[in-house]
Write a structure and sequence with these properties.
The complex is a heterodimer of chains A (455) and B (454).
Chain A lengths: L2 H4 L1 H53 L4 E10 L19 H17 L2 H12 L8 H5 L6 H11 L7 E7 L2 H7 L16 H13 L2 E5 L2 H4 L13 H32 L4 H15 L2 H15 L7 H25 L3 H9 L4 H29 L3 H5 L20 H9 L4 H36 L1
Antiparallel strand pairs in A: 1-2, 1-3
Chain B lengths: L1 H28 L8 H42 L6 H12 L10 H39 L6 H39 L4 H6 L3 E3 L10 E3 L2 H32 L2 H16 L2 H23 L8 H26 L2 H9 L4 H30 L2 H6 L17 H10 L7 H35 L1
Antiparallel strand pairs in B: 1-2
Helix pairs in contact in B: 1-2, 1-4, 2-3, 2-4, 2-5, 3-4, 5-15, 7-10, 7-12, 8-10, 9-10, 10-12, 11-12, 12-15, 14-15
The chains are: A mainly alpha (455), B mainly alpha (454).
């Protein structure tokens, strides 16, 4: 007698139980798989953040330190022969005086500063190292002669004296000393001649050529002739002007617009049109705003090319929807009881908005404005279309002058032919831009926390 | 100097008018109850004085340059030698008139012209300021006389405030109008060189050099660009949709509150990074990596390719998809979820069979928005896609897109009025219409979905 045949019902039950158990195992396995998939996705997203930042930091940070040498430069009067500074005559017009002054400065540029530099380098190099002037000069940044020129321009009494001056190594020399160039390549494929390479090696082992923090990255403007001394100052000031324009234009306009739409506007076709408009503008690709700037501001109004004012205006139009939408949601979050209380004690609608509702929303508006500005700070595409990709080698004095901007500077540097040197430098510029944006965001968060606690 | 003086003038007028209005209403206050507080009376008088003044000054700022040119041009034209440029001569005269001087000895007629110009400039400036001041004082006096206990000054001021607010809101409309009109206008200019049929359906993109006013040469067919754009956007969505969606599901349904509050902002960092940074990252890191990977597995992948650009763009869009889906998933009523769990479904079954179908319309809307962003994205594609406008469907090779071609067309050396530059606007208009349709579609889907559950 066997048990299964005795009770068919129990048999069916146990079969069903086994089936359920099997299906449960399968379902639980599917559950675990699904859950793991979700976790892997989230981790992948996080991994991208980590890879991106790791890559930027590891490749950009070395560029903040550059090789340079403190050299004793003798301003030999036999080499530095320049006339006295011209004085403006009584009957001389400003334009004439400026021409004369420029001519005088040009005489300074014609002095053979390179002789002084190569003498100073050979003085500093270890005894026994010889190199011709060409090789010596290829070690020092070609902007060094302007450093010396400006020193004498500022203080002509230096002529005849010996002064210690910190001069940057050239881009090639910096690459060689940092080991970024392949040492096994034959002579004819090296960027630096053999004597120059030997000189660099001798000077680095001796310690006269050493790494120091590249402050000039923040104080110099962009330069094509002397890549080692190219800096971000011009781009920084250009971006600063643009952000000023954006803040001054987009915050008042955006907040006013949001107040009207949220607090005053009647529900009719006109306000519907405005509303749909703003929502669509928020999603228009940024490059289209650049086209608008090129067609209207540059071509129609004849505003200057690559001026921060024009860039700021284009970015203002681009940030407006962001600020309007954020301000509206801040206004919407104000409890209706506040409005009713104000109206109830006899305030007019305008008084209610400006005296009671708006002050409560300051933290929200402030945060939205800062975030909008941070977004505008990193925008590149529209600026390229209004001519800001031009090479500009001075710090703009007014928002109407030609200027670069931080993101555009990154674009320009990544396109530089000297890839070996500018790759790290571009990453360094990216670090500066990201640091600025992160501090703006941190400021927004901190301000919100602080103001909300007070309110 | 002049601008400082003018600013001072405006401030003085404002202050004086406000003080006058406020003082007068305060004097009246003794006699009976005022309708409005003194400061509203002050503000009203200030408005009456400042608005005409600012109007005159703005008008002067706008037209003075053109007026001066119109005034002095005949004088210059009569004297300038036939070979010399009129513009240079004008500039010299203007330089002399401004007091800065010119290089070299100015000709006697130049000095005379400069003196006339200077006198005219002074007259113009004086009359503008005088007219502005008269209007301001007139406005002040009129408004001051109107101050009375029954004057509804507050209502007037509030109406002015409201008008200013409306003016600000209208700027959004003007922006859209400006975009549409400028794109349309320049596109029509472009279509005078190239026929729309050739532009929209041509399969060869090879603009030849053409100087201003001459015929367009070479091919202006946008199909290769459209294919490149769509290819890159599809690769991006293939990365962003699964990762973004699964991340959103995991964060909303599985992760603990602490993990969620920690991870969500970290992933959203990706959304705040400027696109130029992604572009450079794609160019120097991802591209070479993919190319090496291709060598290992025996595929020929160029470093700048549709794959590189699409992959990195996908990473950029992940937070966009995940935070939008996050919001949408959390809007699904919890009764539906609880019901499914109560019937014995596992969590993943609930998500796949109940929550996901319910949230689908919203998620589709979010994805449409993400596609519109991917199509309009510029810097990543400029740096990482290689700019090769050739009609082909291989994602491992270099390609091009609308945005890349727009940038190339307007940053090159060609003249603004030449077809090579104007084509940027035709492409921009196509891009604008494309993204607009996607956005409107997305908003419609999202709105309908929201109504379903509210």
């Amino acid at each position: 007698m066997s048990a299964p045949s005795l009770d068919p019902e129990a048999q069916a039950n146990s079969l069903r139980r086994a089936q359920v158990r099997r299906s449960l195992t399968r379902r639980n396995r599917a559950e675990a798989r699904f859950r793991a998939l979700g976790m892997v996705s989230a981790l992948a997203a996080l991994g991208f953040v980590a890879i991106l930042f790791g890559n930027i930091l590891s490749r950009g940070i070395p560029a903040f330190w550059q090789y340079s040498a403190v050299l004793n430069v003798t301003f030999d009067p036999a080499v530095v022969r320049v006339p006295e500074r011209p004085v403006q005559g009584a009957d001389q017009s400003d334009a004439d005086y400026q021409t004369a002054l420029l001519g005088w400065q040009r005489r300074f540029s014609m002095v053979n500063w390179n002789t002084l530099i190569s003498r100073a380098v050979l003085d500093a190099a270890p005894a026994g190292v010889t190199a011709d002037q060409r090789a010596v000069l290829s070690v020092i940044d070609s902007g060094a002669r302007f450093v010396l020129r400006d020193l004498v321009l500022q203080d002509p009494s230096l002529i005849g004296q010996t002064v210690p001056v910190r001069l940057l190594a050239s881009a090639d020399a910096d690459n060689w000393a940092k080991g970024k160039l392949d040492r096994s390549l034959p002579d004819e494929r090296q960027q630096l001649s053999r004597p120059a390479r030997d000189l660099i090696d001798a000077m680095t082992t001796q310690g006269s050529l050493q790494r120091s923090f590249a402050w000039h990255l923040f104080t110099n403007v962009d330069s094509r002739a002397s890549p080692a001394s190219a800096g971000l100052a011009g781009a920084f000031v250009g971006s600063l002007y643009m952000m000023l324009v954006v803040i001054l234009a987009s915050v008042p306009i955006g907040v006013s617009s949001a107040i009207y739409l949220e607090e005053f506007a009647p529900r009719n076709r006109f306000t519907d049109v405005i509303e749909v408009n703003i929502n669509n503008l928020a999603a228009v690709p940024s490059i289209v705003f650049g086209l608008l700037g090129a067609a209207v501001f540059i071509n129609l109004f004849r505003l200057p090319l690559s001026a921060p004012l024009v860039g700021g205006l284009v970015l203002t139009l681009m940030t407006l929807p962001t600020i309007i939408i954020a301000t509206r949601s801040a206004l919407r979050a104000v409890p209706p009881s506040l409005r009713q209380a104000a109206l109830g004690i006899g305030a007019s609608r305008t008084q209610m908005v400006f005296h009671h509702v708006l002050p409560v929303t300051y933290p929200g508006i402030l945060t939205a404005s800062i975030l909008g500005v941070a977004q505008a700070l990193g925008e590149t595409a529209p600026l390229l279309l209004i001519g800001m990709n031009a090479f500009v080698a001075n710090i703009p004095a007014t928002p109407l002058e030609q200027s670069a901007a931080l993101p555009v500077q990154i674009y320009l540097w990544q396109g530089n032919e000297n890839r070996n040197f500018f790759e790290a430098r571009t990453f360094a510029a990216i670090i500066v831009l990201l640091a600025l944006m992160i501090s703006l965001n941190a400021l927004a968060i901190w301000l919100r926390g602080r103001l909300e606690r007070k309110a | 100097m002049t601008s400082l003086l003018i600013a001072a003038l405006v401030l003085i007028v404002l202050g004086l008018a406000y003080q006058q209005g406020a003082a007068r209403s305060r004097a009246l206050a003794g006699a009976g109850r005022l309708h409005s507080r003194p400061r509203y009376h002050g503000a009203l008088v200030a408005l009456w004085a400042a608005v005409p003044l600012l109007f005159v000054l703005a008008l002067w700022g706008l037209v003075s340059g053109a007026l001066e040119d119109w005034y002095i041009q005949p004088v210059v034209q009569a004297n300038v030698a036939s070979g010399d440029s009129l513009a240079t001569a004008l500039q010299r005269v203007q330089g002399l008139a401004s007091g800065f001087g010119v290089s070299g000895q100015p000709a006697p007629w130049e000095i005379d012209a400069a003196q006339t110009l200077r006198a005219f400039q002074r007259q113009l400036q004086f009359s503008a300021i005088a007219l502005g001041a008269i209007l301001a004082i007139g406005g002040l006096l009129i408004a001051r006389r109107r101050v009375s206990a029954r004057l509804r000054a507050r209502n007037h001021v509030e109406a002015a405030v409201r008008a200013a607010l409306i003016l600000c809101s209208v700027i959004a409309i003007f922006t859209t109008l400006g975009i549409v009109l400028s794109l349309l206008f320049e596109t029509l200019r472009f279509f005078s060189f190239v026929s729309p049929a050739e532009f929209f359906f041509g399969t060869v993109w090879q603009p030849g050099y053409a100087s201003t006013g001459s015929e367009a040469t070479g091919g202006y067919g946008m199909v290769p660009l459209l294919v490149g754009t769509l290819m890159i956007a599809s690769i991006a969505m293939l990365v962003a949709i699964p990762v973004g969606l699964m991340t959103a599901i995991w964060l909303t349904q599985y992760a603990s509150r602490r993990v969620r509050t920690l991870l969500k902002p970290m992933i959203e960092i990706l959304a705040g990074i400027p696109t130029i940074v992604y572009g450079f990252f794609a160019l120097v890191t991802v591209g070479p990596f993919l190319s090496d990977l291709g060598d290992v597995i025996g595929l020929n992948i160029t470093a700048t390719s549709a794959l590189t650009a699409g992959l990195v763009m996908g990473i950029m869009i992940i937070p966009f998809v995940s935070s939008l889906s996050d919001d949408i998933i959390r809007q699904v009523p919890s009764a539906m979820r609880d019901g499914s769990l109560g019937l014995g479904a596992t969590k993943s079954e609930t998500i796949r069979m109940v929550i996901f179908p319910a949230a689908l319309p919203g998620i589709v809307g979010a994805i449409l928005l993400a596609v519109s962003r991917a199509i309009g994205e510029t810097m990543i594609v400029v740096l990482a896609a290689g700019n090769a406008p050739i009609l082909r469907f291989n994602p491992f090779e270099a390609t091009s897109s609308f945005t890349v071609t727009i940038v190339a067309a307007l940053t090159g050396d060609s003249d603004f009025a030449s077809p090579q530059s104007l084509v940027a606007f035709a492409l921009g208009l196509t891009l604008f219409v494309l993204t607009l349709m996607l956005n409107i579609g997305a908003l419609a889907v999202v709105r309908r979905y929201r109504e379903q559950y509210e």
